[in-house]
Design brief:
The complex is a heterodimer of chains A (about 450) and B (about 290). Chain A is about 50% helix and about 5% strand. With about 450 residues, chain A is an all-alpha fold. Chain A folds into 3 domains: about 110-175, no CATH class; about 180-315, Cytochrome c-like domain (Cytochrome Bc1 Complex, Chain D, domain 2, Orthogonal Bundle), CATH 1.10.760; about 325-445, Cytochrome c-like domain (Cytochrome Bc1 Complex, Chain D, domain 2), CATH 1.10.760.10. Chain A has a 3-stranded antiparallel sheet, with no helix packed on it. In chain A, α11 (about 235-245) crosses α12. Chain B is α+β, with helices and mostly antiparallel strands and about 290 residues long. Chain B folds into 2 domains: about 1-100; about 160-285, Sandwich (Immunoglobulin-like). Helices cover about 40% and strands about 20% of the residues of chain B. In chain B, strands 3-2-1-5-8 form a 5-stranded mixed sheet. Chain B has a 5-stranded mixed sheet with strand order 4-10-9-6-7. Classes of the chains: A mainly alpha (about 450), B alpha+beta (about 290). At the A-B interface, α1, α16 and α17 of A face α1, β2 and α6 of B.
Amino acid sequence: MSDPQPLRGRLAIAAGLFGLLLAACDPEPPRPELHYTLSADSKQLLADYPAAQDQLLGTLGMLFGSPSNPRYAVPEEWIDDERNPNDAWAELSEARQAELVAANKKAFATPLAALERGDFAAVEPAREALDLQAAWGEIRAGYDEIAAAMEAGTKSRTDLDKYVAENKADAIALFTDWYPSLRESAEMYRTQCLHCHGINGDGKGSTAEFLNPTPRDYQRGAFKWTALNEKARPRRADLYGVLENGVNGTAMLSFKRFSATQLEGLVDYVRLLSIRGETERNLAREDAEEGFKIEAVQEAYLDVWSKWDKSAEFVIAYDGEIPEATPEVIEHGRVLYNDATGANCVSCHGVGGLGDGPSAKEPDPNGGPVPISKKDDWGNPLGPRDLTQGIYRGGDRPIDLYRRLYAGINGTYMPAHSTIKDPQGNRKVTDEDLWAIVHYVRSLSKGKRL
Amino acid sequence: MSFLNPSNGAWSILALLVALLLVLVTFVKFTRLWTVILIALLPILGVWTFVKAPEWGLWFPKDVSTHGAGMDSLFNLILWMVAITFVLTEVGLVWCVFRYHDKVPGKSLFTHGSHKLEMIWTAIPAVALLVIAFAQIGTFKQIKFEDHWPTGGPYSKDKPIAHVIAYQFAWLMRYPDANGSFDSVDVIESPFDFVVPVDTDIMFQLKSRDVLHSFFLPNLRLKQDAVPGMTIPMWFQATEVGEYDLICAELCGWGHYKMAGRLIVKSKPDYEKWLADKRAALKSNGTADLEAAE
């Protein structure tokens, strides 16, 4: 470089580049303020009442908070009953609470070991756990203060040891007894679920359009893979099971790499999104007539909650041992499967279970030569399951298939076989028949599972 | 400023190096001395990051397999060969910059062809490649060759412990029924968790439902592509009870980053109990769910 730039110019360039570098290295970018929006359905229903749209969104904000700070409104009658849906920990059984403490001990093994040693400087809580981070930050700040004073020579090692001894038990309890607040779970949802299920839980995240089947839209309160009858709202265990095991054959994968406590927190948040979505749908429908009605709000809110509160009453269980899958039972199942006057599985799932039965498609309403797919309640094309693949989305145990047959599949054409009655009012397909069909269906995928 | 702390990982180290380079490039007048120092910094920093990597937690995860030692020694062999070559080349480069720095620009010396040099720089890499080729035979044979597959133990090619199925974007482990059959309807499916007994030769079959995936157990130094349409036998032996990462090591679509699983190594009785519990769950009639609700 025979003709170097003046030093000042080079200094400016260096400072600028260094500044850019610092900016690029920011390890804690600011969190965006997030907002729920109204669904397209609600907007369409309220197209004549623009003011009602804002009022509805504001009301939902009061009932459920925002994605940055989700929070259920607590009606007066619940305060008297000491019920607080924001405190999901209290809803869990003692056995479950103990399991979660054990899960925390495992998930936080590294920070807990550091705390046991008294090495507070080595402890970093998980990034998604905002409240835990804040609570730990307070204890840590005191520690850092003394450590700094120690370096300056104004405090001694004994001061630090004393502080550690005083705060150790609290700090350990902070980690072992951690249960995510709705705010923390919303943050977890933002990083793990939002890109498919969307910020409103409407299944319209940015990666959703690549997926078949599409991600679940929670806003209807309808969930397919539950152990429940009569399309009841899911129990915690149903939602937890989907998070834990994923849904085989779909893009919903198992989230077991997160701790049980984190997954229970996600269950809380999915429930909030679902209750919010259903409340919004119901209110939008009511308001579509004459504009926003404030009187309807509390009733709608409590109405949706009451459905979720009752879900445990709808668990499907079979009283007794599951019949063995003998060749006779399977043969009986085959006959029932093909019986057009009874279970009539064959009409949709086809002879041999390939999912190609005559009712699987509808004739084109415009008279075209190719029949068109039926659609599910969410408006997605829907075909009957190919039973020979052995990919059972709701679980592959016989009891899981029994529940699909017994109660049908929410939002689809799969009917509840327990409700098919003959003229005398007796069940056409008895429990014994259901088990025979279950065993026949399972036998269809024998040796063909991939 | 926490990000200036190298223990924060590779990013901070890279940022530090780039910043250092920028400052040097901006402030330094390129005299011979500075040019030599700048070029010499590259091998020095390069070697320094390798020396410090284990301390910063950027080195290999703990090895818990019988394959691991062989793989690691191969890696170290190649690393040493590359390191020596790298340092020697860089020393040559720095020396050339120092020795032939010409203050007065003049015409360069042109030469063409040197049989001796050609021989040397063909022979040395050839020898190096031969060394690598022969050195890896033993380890490669042990891991991949059919005549080294386990036979005497409980699991073999015809009696694998499980089928491992990769699909976008998850791992599914399928265990045989109580009679050892994978064609039965009572196979056990375990999403995410690949559970195996410790200190046992484990043979499994790898499959893919859709696209290319790669089965990768970093702690066991084991990696194999899963190819749709192929059933690939694999084996390993885990030497320590614990939970280890199972990841997909082949870009398989937009959700590749999420495609995780877990290898759970249990003691033999614990493994048997886990399998028995899974088999018992098939007989569930759902009444346990009723009790859980109360």
